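Quiz preparation item.
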């Protein structure tokens, strides 16, 4: 850009000292506008780059997110950078570092992920010997507006038997000063019967940055955020409730930033229940009714026969302070 700027200054100086007719000057400014607009248009594009681990997503020429096909037995999205370039999920356990802002609890909370704690009695949330195995990318494409990945995965038990499969479609984009990830997952049974059990441990989860979680204010008076749902319930009161959206907002590296998760009306069991904790776990879970409503019966379990499916749909918004989440939800709900 330095050579281009120097050339422009010389050219402009020449034109000022050598007047030209208005028609020529008009043509000059048209050419100048095209000249300057070229790199700006290119910089606004979302792009994908394949890596050994999966794909990286770039926006405005800078990192936005990474899709990793295998992070100790499950696919994850990490890292994630918000609209101001700050990291918007916990780095542990993907990276080990002496960072006072990050708690080292719950090592199965891996940035942004999708799993469940009871599938035919097996815990895919904490993993153990079972795992979710990436099979292939069915699609990877990008344009000026969005980047999209479609990944196919198998849920495999400790005997290497595939219980179910999923197709997850992730669309990355930006709007109204925010960045978003649309995360749609269709799960299909591969056995005669697959039961998604009633447990709070699931399903779409993100672990927020350590300074953002509500409890962080106990560790440092400059830290600590808040949770609020569509009905206005805050912090602990939002846990286990059904709502169209929840927003988790707080300080991140000197700025007040937020993560909102919106549940599309076409999603399975909309509006979903929320397993959202003040220590930083932020998860949408349509299955954990017994825990969330303090019932004795496991009324939240869902039984799939072989070939049957369910689909859940979410939009994660990474935003600045004072974003209008209710308006953003209306826009999302009106989309197909």
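Solution:
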């Amino acid at each position: 850009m330095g050579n281009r700027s120097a050339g422009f200054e010389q050219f402009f100086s020449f034109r000022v000292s050598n007047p030209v007719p208005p028609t020529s000057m008009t043509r000059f400014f048209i050419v100048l506008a095209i000249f300057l607009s070229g790199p700006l248009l290119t910089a606004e594009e979302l792009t994908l780059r394949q890596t050994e681990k999966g794909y990286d997503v770039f926006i405005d020429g800078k990192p936005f997110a990474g899709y990793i096909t295998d992070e100790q037995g499950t696919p994850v999205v990490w890292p994630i950078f918000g609209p101001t370039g700050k990291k918007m999920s916990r780095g542990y356990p993907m990276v080990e570092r002496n960072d006072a802002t990050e708690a080292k609890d719950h090592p199965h909370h891996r940035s942004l992920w999708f799993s469940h704690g009871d599938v035919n009695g097996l815990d895919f949330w904490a993993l153990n010997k079972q795992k979710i195995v990436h099979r292939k990318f069915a699609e990877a494409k990008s344009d000026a507006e969005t980047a999209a990945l479609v990944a196919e995965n198998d849920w495999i038990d400790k005997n290497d038997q595939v219980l179910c499969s999923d197709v997850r479609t992730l669309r990355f984009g930006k709007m109204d000063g925010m960045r978003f990830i649309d995360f749609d997952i269709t799960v299909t049974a591969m056995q005669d019967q697959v039961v998604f059990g009633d447990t709070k441990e699931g399903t779409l989860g993100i672990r927020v940055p350590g300074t953002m979680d509500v409890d962080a204010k106990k560790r440092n008076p400059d830290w600590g955020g808040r949770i609020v749902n569509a009905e206005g319930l805050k912090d602990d009161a939002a846990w286990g409730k059904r709502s169209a959206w929840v927003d988790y907002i707080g300080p991140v590296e000197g700025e007040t930033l937020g993560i909102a998760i919106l549940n599309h009306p076409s999603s399975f069991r909309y509006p979903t229940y929320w397993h959202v904790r003040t220590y930083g776990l932020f998860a949408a879970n349509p299955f954990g009714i017994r825990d969330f409503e303090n019932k004795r019966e496991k009324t939240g379990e869902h039984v799939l026969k072989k070939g049957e499916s369910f689909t859940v749909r979410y939009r994660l918004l990474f935003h600045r302070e004072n974003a209008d989440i209710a308006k953003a939800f209306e826009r999302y709900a009106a989309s197909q």
